[in-house]
Amino acid sequence: MDSIVLPNEWLANSQKATREVDQGADIDDFCKVWQDLKPELEKLVGKKCWYCEAIQSRSDKDVEHFRPKKKVCNVKPDHDGYRWLAFNYTNYRYSCGYCNKRRKDSGNNNRLGGKGNYFPLIDENKRAYKPGDEVYERPKLLDPCVEADVKLLDFNDDGTPCSVTSANQIDRDRVEESIKLYHLHHSEIVEERKKLAHIL
Q: Tens digit of pLDDT per residue, the chain (200 long)?
């Protein structure tokens, strides 16, 4: 993310949107702010989804909010979302629809996957409810922008994802949760990995 090139006026538009939302405006009224960054996010690693690394030539391409901008699922007390990060580009990830949205895998017993508005933490007591406190969170989901997280993910010969053998129990749990919520075990992507493994 340090390499991203922000379009002219993007920061000004982001700051304006933040002020409007702080005053009660709907976040989605300013979706153009993050959509305007889609081409620049795509340039960072080509047309690959940052979560599953599948090339996105025709499918949905989303600017995903790593920390959800709206109500976070399965959190008590209720969390209205990381609204203060809705227009912060460091919270954006370039994602395919399968990793970002909740979908069923028809090729695998309709198993549900996709991040949606889920954002589990290792320690729920450290959940941020106000700006700045997110630095104390330890996300349970692997972050494709953190090199150490990327190195925790491996793949079996059959194309299914798994953790590296050297991972400790906490990191194995993080990998397992990430596989489920990023839909990394989706039957189509598993099949593509198998094909790629045979070529290599």
A: 899 999 999 999 999 999 999 999 999 999 999 999 999 999 998 889 999 988 866 566 889 999 999 999 999 999 999 999 999 999 999 998 888 987 777 667 777 778 999 999 999 999 999 999 999 999 999 999 999 999 999 999 888 999 999 999 999 999 999 999 999 998 888 888 877 766 66
The residue range of the domain holding 180 is: 10-199
Q: Assess if residue 3 is contained within a domain.
A: no
- Spatial contact of 140 and 177, defined as CB atoms under 8 Å apart: yes
Q: How many domains does the chain have?
A: 1
User: What residue has token string 């104390």?
Assistant: 136
**What's the distance, CA 148 to chain centroid?**
16
Query: Nearest to residue 79, comparing CAs of 138, 33, 124?
Result: 124
Question: Can you give the pTM of this predicted structure?
Answer: 0.91
